[in-house]
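Changelog note: in this version the structure field was regenerated for every chain. One regenerated record is shown below for reference.
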Amino acid sequence: MSMRITNFIAALYGFYGVTAGAVGAHVIKNMHSADMVKTAALYALIHAVVLIAYNGGGKFGMMIRWLFVAGVFLFSGAITAKYMLDLSWAGHAAPVGGILLMAGWALMALNAFRRA
């Protein structure tokens, strides 16, 4: 994945994060649903910044970026679908997204150690 595409996806995740955070804070009345959407927004924002800032190259760097892209899509997307679009079945994808995000962080740590 090129840095241009990575930055584009990061910008979309940043836009989503700000928008979903605002919806969670000001539109959704159910407190649990609002908290879930705000969590999805936070994860998207954090990983948008990481996608832009991470400069690891090679196959590990690409794999880390793909894990973060797919992880945010599944985690935040599933929560959005469940709590904003009332698609309860979509919530089952959130744990998969979370695992992908954890794998991305673990691989980033291993990659940093490997390069030292």
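Spot check on this record: DSSP finds four helices and no strands in the chain. The chain has a mean pLDDT of 94.
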